[in-house]
Structure formats: structure tokens, C-alpha cells
Amino acid sequence: MTTPSLRPLLLCFTLAAMAVGPMPVQAQSPAPTFTPEEVGINEKLGTTIPLDLELKDEDGRTVTLRQLIDKPTILTLNYFRCAGICTPSWPVAEVLNRSAVPGQDFQVLTVSFDERDVPEVAAQKRTNYLGEITLPIPPPPGVS
Question: What are 87-129's pLDDT values in tens digits?
Fold first, then answer.
């Protein structure tokens, strides 16, 4: 069995980010500068993410990507507590307000790659992000 390519998802996210246009600059502390070697980018072009990859959801339950992805999905990778750069770089909410029906035609899956981001932080960020979307969003399956 082959796993589906993430290229369509990446294309969707890239187009969504381009549709938003430039983000306004916000006053903040100067961000530290890093060399490319310090950032640690390890490209895996042409590979796929295994659908059996286990994650913790905002309620602390273990779930797999296979359980979460059942429609076109915008996958965002974030630090939930990143000061100054990560939260302002969330242009997806604006795109969702102009696009197809969220939760029905597509979904957004935001994953933190910071092990210090606990489920409670994820739940708060989910609430914050949903508050930025003005279109009605149906509840996830199994939630009334």
C-alpha cells in the first residue's frame, strides 16, 4: 500500500499563503539571527509522511494521521509558544474566510513540533484560531 503524496497539500498551503499577500509588521522584540547551520533544515523532498504517524490531539489522546485526514488537508507545523514569529505567521485564517466551506470541503491540521507544547496549549490555540474564522465551521465528527 502506498501513502499519498503531500504535494497537493503543500501546493494548497502555498497558494493559500500567496493569496493572503504580505502580512503587516507588528512591533516586537528583535528576533535572534541564526545561520542556516544552526536552523537545522533537513529536507526530505519527494518523501511522504507515514499515515500511521502517532500524534497527541488537543485532548491528549493518541491519534494517527490516517484517523485525522479524511478530506483535503492544510497541514501547518508550528511552535504554539513561539514569541513574535510563529503566531503572526498564521495567514490561513484569512484564506479560510474567503474559501470553500471549512470542515466540509477541507480541514486544517496544525501540529506543534515543540515537545513542551502540551495538549492544554494546543486546545487554547485551537480555540484562538477558530475565533479568527468568521465562516461557520461544522463540529468535527463525533462532537456535537
Answer: 544 566 666 666 667 677 778 888 888 888 888 888 888 888 7
Amino acid present at 114: D
Q: Which residue bears the cell 496549549?
A: 121
* Amino acid making up residue 4: P
Residue 112 lies in a domain: yes
Cα–Cα distance, 51 to 6 (Å, whole number):
11
pTM exceeding 0.70: no
- Sign of the CA dihedral with 115 first, then 140, 98, and 72 last: positive
- Whether 13 is in a domain gets the answer no
CA pair distance 7, 45, nearest whole angstrom = 10
On whether residue 5 sits in a domain, the answer given is: no
Q: Which of 101, 92, 115, 116 is nearest to 17 (CA)?
A: 92
Full DSSP string of 18-69: HHH-PPPP---PPPPP--HHHHT----TT----TT-EEE-TTS-EEEHHHH-
Asked if residue 28 is part of any domain, the answer here is no
